Amino acid sequence: MKVNIVLARLLAFSFFNDIGSSIFAFAVNLYILQVTGSALAFSTGMVIIPIANIVFFPISGYIVDNFAKKKVIMVSLALAAGSLSLTLLFLASLGKALIWVLLVQLFILRMCDILVQSALMTLIPQLFERDLQRINALLQAVMRFTGVIGPIVAGILFYLVPFVNIGILEVSFDFLALLLFGGIEVKSEKQLASRSKNSKTHLGKVLRYISQEKLVSSYLILCIFSNLVLASFQIGAPFLMLHVLGYTSIEYGIVEAFFAIGAVLGSIVLAFTKIKLTVKNSYQTFGMIGLGTICLGLVLAFPKNFVTFLLIMTAVLAIGTSMIISNIAMVTLLQQQIKQAVQGHIFTAFDTLVTASLPIFSLLFGGVFQNFAGWWILLISGSLMLLAVLGILSSGINENL
């Protein structure tokens, strides 16, 4: 099958899979809030996805490395569509169990999404021998685009149609994604020949591999520091803008949108230009995240006015762009350097460690901003990011990695 046809199918598959997940995840939380009127029930729905990430990422690595990746994706999509179809069929008769069933369904859908994402990430080098950076950038562009429009579409649909119809739309998108990916030919997956060896891989061995491989361990450190910066931004920007400087929720919403716009722009730039990022370049993009956060902190030190607002949007746009470029470069380089037979274990262990750090930093900055409410906190988090990058760069970079 020609590369362009495979790419077109893959992008269409990614779009329908991602947009369906985005719409339903947003709508189901609104439905829980509507049915219960409880902020606690609503917040429980919000934390299901992070919990599923932490619990299931390590397990998914074993599955992805020991079973044919195409089959993993196909079975995951079928499980998502099938389980949701059953839930929707009996939705009206669930009574008091409704909320618990919906929470379990959210967990199952996220579990299936993790399997699809993990398998796809390790399958891309088999589908495309060249232009991995461009392929990853295009997939990121689709994912970020659906992340922006998904909640908007979900909000409109939730207002216009019954919740069951939104669930049916998600099932339809899952089946469409299943058909699209089923038409993609995948070469024989060599890692299956070493299944018995891979099945013995455990967390201790994976962690030792990560600690011994300079490229992997350096990226892990930088991703954890980028989560530190992200948490300081996600907590600090709305708190300072709304409660300290007196911006409106609409103005903050615009600022938040610029972060997503920056992510889309960054992925488009890498997808449609011939820029090839080296290991050193990828480290430097992490440094730009820190620099953007420092600039944001400095701008938030000034009183509210139109110029300040424009500078805030510019800084947030830069942070969003830098984050997506650093992510695409990192994933591409790791796909090229890590053996395909163990990519599932490594990527999922990596994601677990990084994912677990974000809620910890969020709680930390929640307390810090509550007690100090200072723009200088963003300066500190951005500076720590820069110091981490400078430390790794000064330790020596092997461009032949």
Description:
- It is a single chain.
- The protein is an all-alpha fold and 401 residues long.
- It is 83% helix and 0% strand.
- It contains 14 helices and no strands.
- The chain has helices spanning 3-36, 39-66, 69-89, 98-127, 132-160, 163-182, 195-198, 203-212, 214-244, 249-272, 279-299, 306-337, 343-371, 376-394.
- The chain starts with a helix and ends in a 7-residue tail after the last helix.
**Main sheet overview:** none
Strand content: under 5%
Low-confidence stretches: 191-200
Order of helices and strands: HHHHHHHHHHHHHH
Structural class: mainly alpha
Quaternary organization: single chain
Brief descriptors of the model:
mainly alpha, 0% strand, globular
At a glance:
This protein is mainly α and 401 residues long. 83% of the residues lie in helices and 0% in strands.
Task: Set out the fold topology.
Elements: H1 3-36, H2 39-66, H3 69-89, H4 98-127, H5 132-160, H6 163-182, H7 195-198, H8 203-212, H9 214-244, H10 249-272, H11 279-299, H12 306-337, H13 343-371, H14 376-394
